[in-house]
User: Fold these one by one.
Assistant:
Number 1:
Amino acid sequence: MNLYADIIIDIAHSRLDQTFQYRVPGELAETLEPGNVVLVPFGRGDHPKKGYVLRITDHAACAPEKLKTILQVETSLAGAESKLTALALWMRDYYGSTAVQALRTVLPFREQAAPKKKRKLVLRLPAGEAQEVLARCRQKHQTARARLLEALLAEPALPMEIVTGSLKITPSVWKPLAEQGIVACETEQIYRTPAVLRQLQEESRRSAAVGRQDADGSKAAADEHNAGGFRLNAAQQAAVDAVCSRWESGGGRYLLHGVTGSGKTAVYMELIACALKRGQQAILLIPEISLTYQNVIRFYHRFGDRISILHSRLSQAERYDQFERARDGDIDVMIGPRSALFAPFPRLGIIIIDEEHEPSYKSETVPRYHAREVARKRAELEGAQLVLGSATPSLEAYYGAQTGLYELLRLPDRATGGQLPTVYTVDLRAELKEGNHSILSRTLYEKLSGVLAEKKQAMLFLNRRGYMGFVSCRSCGAVLKCPHCDVSLSLHRGGRMVCHYCGYEEQAAKHCPVCGSPYIGGFRAGTQQIEEVVKGMFPEARILRMDADTTRGKDGHAEILRAFGSHEADILIGTQMIVKGHDFPGVTLVGILAADLSLHVSDYRAAERTYQLLTQAAGRAGRGREPGEVVIQTYDPEHYAVVCAARQEYEPFYEQELAYRRLSGYPPTGNLLAVHLAAPDEEKLAVAVDYLARFIRQIAGKYQALVIGPADEPIAKINDVYRKAVYVKQADTRRLIGVKNMVEQYIEINSGFSDIRVQFEMN
Ligand code: ADP
Ligand code: ZN
Ligand code: ZN
């Protein structure tokens, strides 16, 4: 039987899948698989080009004799690329995208920037023999050859710039010598190094030079620094042992649940060292916002030049080079945000995801993948270990630990021996009743005065995630919800309240439906107003503000953190940005201004995000020697997310939240597929989305799925493009993917969708 393969040739230049069919030669018939990287003849000159095998069939799309034949399977890539291609194809199927979109996400590809290469000519003969050749050249008056050989006898490796430059030697002169094996042209890869690492390399070179001068004294100090100056405590060691002892069997999956400040980083380092000892490589994902100089420096001190980092400010070329270095064995550890997951290491030993609950691990571009799920797939394909770490695990991860998907490892105490902070919860409704209309409750005001008097530091955190117009009552705290979906209604201009899941609408309320109070509306305070209020109350205090406005500059974010870290300010006011993983030992007070703002985002994850933000924010207090205090201000002090965060307890929160998810069919117990539609033509979009919803309802029975919508997206129009969505619920992902595949086909054959952008989103 003849086999044919659909192959994608050029992922750098096309955006859409354009496949070419090739014949599979007999010797590959047994072994060729989708995902393999192959060489194929391409174009008029039949130049060999790299291609990715998407599909193998026994059915030729045209007369078989017209098809060209695959030349060979690429094995020189050490398999890394083939495994990544297979991963990309899995992502295409699971998340819904074209193969090119998935391949471009996963594989390092070069858009224009060719890597800098340094070429040089080297002498291949021993000096004696070269002298003889030189003599012969002189005899024959081959002056150019003689000139080159003289130069090479003086300097056995010459950079090509010198050869072609000052020596004026053309390729027509040296190429014949190369063919005779007298000289050779060698290429040395020069990688662009991210600035932060360059700086660290410089510093360590300088201190090494100093170290040599004063002998072994400073070396001992350096060793101490490498180890972080402490031994792992029992819980940390147990976690490390659990992973390392079963490394052989491969593919272990773990969730490291450690309270804030429990020393998870030290565990990660030990695990990475474990991988390196076995000659394997490691990937550490951390949220972009924690990629601070202080964090990178810790890893650099331990692993030196074996690490590289990725971050969003790298140029495309720098980014590409880091992937090349990973592939070429120039580094063993890749640290970075979610895209670092695709480092093409030949022998990947472990993937670690720090702060695995962070929303930034979810990609917002197609394919809309989640790094946690893709990491699990990659670890499975490559037999690598997977470790997720968090103080506030996502429901998905903890549910996974409960159901045997992950093994749970715990760090129950702070590593420095410090206590978790004392938390006070303040009911803002009571404040209002007693005549305090200020943003600061009396408790927070008093504690802040105390901190300033004692010359310590405080952080004030405004939870801005809830900013998108939910409607609540300031007297009783009631929030207006959709009667069908249990998510809050959003206030739209024009005075209507809308549900973004099912499309339900009603007229905006003028009085609270629960208590009748007229104090009803959206909460509208921003960080800037808070800064003004606090300045008014404490004119002497030095205040820094960190939000999207003040961090716009290149290093704005790092500069604010540095200034606050060295106590150049007393109070840091900010949004989510200030709660992530920063370690400020001087901070003894954290104020959370309106804890429940994020509870009412129309998103089934609202309570989970709130719990995480509150716990992480509270965890910033008292990380030094002084014990910490936290004031949580809220309109909803009884909400379990607020209560559990105040007690710094995870499990009770998890139990309640899981019960809610189970009841309403949301992940992790259920699964949710969103089909997003967008188009500039509102009417066309409305017609298309109705057709689509009807079609999905028709097939839903077969897949036992529940269809919700269509409804406007939370932001119904961006840049004059209208946006709508249909949701499909079904616990079994395979069935959900079945629905997705049917929808993909339906859209492909239906001309009504030609001007409409359709995207899929899992959970
Ligand atoms: P987490 O990431 O779990 O919040 P970190 O890894 O940032 O915690 O560690 C918190 C602090 O505890 C750091 O300053 C770290 O140097 C310190 N630390 C970690 N492990 C130990 C240990 N075994 N003994 C003493 N201090 C430790
Ligand atoms: Zn009310
Ligand atoms: Zn609804």
Number 2:
Amino acid sequence: MDNKKIAVVTGGSRGIGKEIAVKLAEEAYVIVNYNGSEEKAAQVVREIKDKGGNAEAVKCNVASFKECEKFIGDIVERFGKIDILVNNAGINKDGLILSMSEEDFDSVINTNLKGTFNCIKFVSKSMIKNRYGKIINISSISGVAGNPGQANYAASKAGIIGLAKRIINVNTIVPGFIMTEMTDVLGDKVKENILSQIPLKRFGTPQNVAELAAFLASDKSSYITGQVINLDGGMIM
Ligand code: NAP
């Protein structure tokens, strides 16, 4: 392993997390975390290896405090460190507050916000001890500007912006509309409406997010911390 950096990407099995994992693998050994998509995570690892990098897939439900403790603890024990943590795992269960179930509120908060807290908490000790660490959180413009029908999602993503700003380099990316399975399900009318609000007149790609995440994970960004960076084609400016 030499002195390769160790990177953990939560929700690295699909979409944005997958692209971030593939990009970071150009420089680091990547732990591709997944929860349900075992085969997709294995495919990401194969893609990384085919490109000459190295990675492994590890299952962990980030919403579980206990699973995260073991997940992060095992990696630190094996490698002695985690250099980069990307808190990307996320879900949405949209609905108007009046009809939103307690379960749909809790599961989104637990995965998106508590999951981010869990991983930061367990990774912090080793990063502080090693006096090195890059934490990159993936929020959303819904967490900055709100969005009808996304009370749970917006609250979880706003909470991420408020989380832990003072451990090593901690920065938050705020993607706008990025083309993944999460946004595929939206109808054409909704997509047209969103597109009309994007000054750059196109949707973002997972690669766009991966490029910024790779910069924030690198030593080129060593003097940037506590920042919230929009990546939304200008939707919020
Ligand atoms: P996606 O295609 O639906 O992928 C979600 C990823 O999160 C999957 O890899 C999934 O893994 C993982 N995940 C979900 N619940 C998990 C859990 N409990 N534990 C571990 N992993 C879990 O979504 P995406 O569009 O790539 O979104 C990635 C992140 O960007 C999310 O945080 C999302 O909120 C944020 N974001 C997306 C957009 C957008 O336009 N797409 C915009 C702003 C922010 P499994 O399938 O293995 O469970």
Number 3:
Amino acid sequence: MAKMVIMDHPLIQHKLTIIRDKNTNTKIFREVTNEIGMLMAYEITRDLPLEDVVIETPLVKCTQKRLSGKKLAIIPILRAGLGMVDGILDLVPAARVGHIGMYRDHDTLEPVEYFAKFPQDIKERRLFVVDPMLATGGSAICALDLLTQKYGVDPNNITFACLVAAPEGIKALQAAHPDVDIYAAALDERLNENGYILPGLGDAGDRIFGTK
Ligand code: PRP
Ligand code: URA
């Protein structure tokens, strides 16, 4: 089983409280979501491999470290995943960005895919699939099914990162994709009867884009 990490950094907890608050407006919600994305990027990139490189400082020749290994790609699940992308790109500006368009049917809660576009060399890259909410897990599972089954990506090269996870979603995602690392900024209590996370933050897409 791959890693399951709940981030309990004080800055992340503080910022999550801001976006959970129903009185937080769209502008602040969007800004803070990106800030959390950036803080999460610091942690989800912790295992990136390094190699030695010889450089000269103004004083002396020396051996230092630089990133090596696979190039990176961020894959937001639309729409809400877009809200984390700029924050992550602040830390890894050279990463490519692929998109998976998916919405959850309001009645069945089943994910419906409507768009997919990836960098050509997706199989060669280390992927960070991002979506603020992991509720039933249906959307994340469907996105990872697409990447691993249709595009042949090795699940060991994928990390899934979300802001708020429900226990139900984590369980389902781990069962479907046991080799994918999962990072969440918070593990909440449960889903309500409509498949919303409690206490949660409401509908992430609507709050990021101001559509409700
Ligand atoms: C939300 C969220 C996830 C999904 C999580 O998207 O951003 O993609 O629901 O729910 P699940 O784990 O039960 O699948 P939504 O369907 O509301 O689409 P949107 O991002 O376009 O608003
Ligand atoms: N999608 C959201 O945006 N919020 C939830 O609580 C569950 C699914």
